Amino acid sequence: MAGSDSGGDASEEDTKSSLEGQRKGAPEGPPQQNVFQAIVLDRIDTNLFLAKPEILWKPPGARAVFGGQVLGQSLAAASQTVAPGLSLHSLHAYFVRAGQPEHPIVYDISRVRDGNSFATRSVAARQKGEWIFTMQASFQRPEGYSVCHQARMPDVPDPESLPTEEERFTKLLHDPEIQPLAKWILSHRKKYVNPIDVRVVLDSLNWHTEEAKQMRVKYALSGLGMPSQLLWFRVRERLPDDEHVHHAVLAYQSDAGLLSTARVEMSWKSFWEARPMMASLDHAMWFHHAFPRWRADEWLLYAMYSPRLTGARGLSHGHIFTRDGWLVVSCTQEGLIRFGKDRGLPPSMRPETKVSKL
Q1: Are residues 232 and 201 in contact, defined by beta-carbon separation less than 8 angstroms?
Q2: Cα separation of 113 and 269, whole Å?
Q3: Taking a C-beta distance cutoff of 8 angstroms, is the pair 288, 268 a contact?
Q4: Where in the chain is the domain with CATH 3.10.129.10?
Q5: Could you report the per-residue pLDDT of 305-320, keeping only the tens digit for each?
Q6: Among 37, 33, 34, 35, residue whose Cα is nearest residue 23
Q7: Model confidence over 75-109: pLDDT tens digits?
Q8: Is the pLDDT of residue 347 over 70?
Q9: What is the pLDDT of residues 112-153, one digit of tens each?
Q10: How far is CA 11 from CA 1, 52, 80, 82, 111, in A?
Q11: Which of 64, 72, 74, 291 could form a disulfide with 123 if both were Cys (CB 3.0 to 4.6 A apart)?
């Protein structure tokens, strides 16, 4: 397989990331249980990287490979083609087609520009010769002193005081009003441990409660009347001290929950009754602080809000804070939200067609 025509031989200045050649040292387990395994790729040429089917993950009830995994893998590939000393500061991506876990994904990197202060990389992800994803990422050398300001971090409970994901799922599965599709998805999710430890402060499950209304006022989320979610997250396993690993893992996790913020005002019961179909359309991230000011394996607060949902497209923004209050990453995503479609649902979840015996 030929390399990208935008590259040439690998530069001696390419970053020697722990993403390269680390699969042997990565913890064992399927990709849905080990986020590091899910982003480490095989380098097959100077600017070509391969994700084999065995590391691709399609979440329960989903129609495609998890978008965050494709995003993280693209970034992991691009990061290995930049010179040392350059840190990611932004990325902009489009999800073009649904990725399928039965086929490998090839990531083709174009070295758009290598300047004194910035480097730009373009990534084309393909399956069976067709584009499924495209991304541009920009890397920057550290600057000296600059004037700074940032948004204030919401004052929320510590993650240790909040229920674990397993505790939340168990409670939901015992809810007599749980919808069949939601029950099917949650029961399959409980079969493995999420490699990301997630502790929810505010989401669609408690949005309509009086307690949630008080929280939205307290956390200054109610002023503009936007649907919002708040959650803590961190990777369970200790990650290598490599900024490119942490960037890729954070990109992986940033896709989880951002789009669902756009439908938070719809009750949990009504949402699942409507037989939803959701898919990310595009995704952008800005990294305000360089590693190791933050780590993906230490607690981070994800504050998400959605200013608009119309035309079956929802727009959501997110801010990621360190535990001590630094705003380190901002995200924006637009996604598709459709209701009333049965295509692609498990057979047991599809509405029955009853034939009259009269």
Answers
A1: yes
A2: 49
A3: no
A4: 23-140, 159-338
A5: 999 988 889 999 999 9
A6: 37
A7: 999 999 999 999 999 999 999 999 999 999 999 99
A8: no
A9: 999 999 999 999 999 999 999 999 999 999 987 788 899 999
A10: 20, 25, 10, 9, 11
A11: 74
Q: What is the CATH number of domain 23-140?
A: 3.10.129.10
> pTM (2 decimals)?
0.84
- Tell me how far apart the alpha carbons of residues 261 and 229 are, in angstroms, rounded to a whole number: 6
Q: Residue 355 carries which side chain, given as an amino acid letter?
A: V
What are the strands of the beta sheet with 313-322, ordered from one edge? 42-45, 48-51, 105-114, 118-127, 130-140, 87-95, 277-287, 327-338, 313-322, 300-310, 228-235, 196-202
Domain boundaries 159-338, corresponding CATH code: 3.10.129.10
CA atoms of 154 and 17, how far apart (whole Å): 34
The whole-number pLDDT of residue 8 equals 41
Q: At what angle do helices 180-189 and 165-173 cross, to 10 degrees?
A: 140
Sign of CA dihedral 125, 129, 132, 138: positive
Q: Which residues are catalytic?
A: 255, 280, 333
Residue 314, Cβ density class (10 Å: 0-12 exposed, 13-18 middle, ≥19 buried): buried
> Which residues lie closer than 8 Å to 317 by C-beta, 6 or more apart?
304, 305, 306, 307, 330, 331, 332
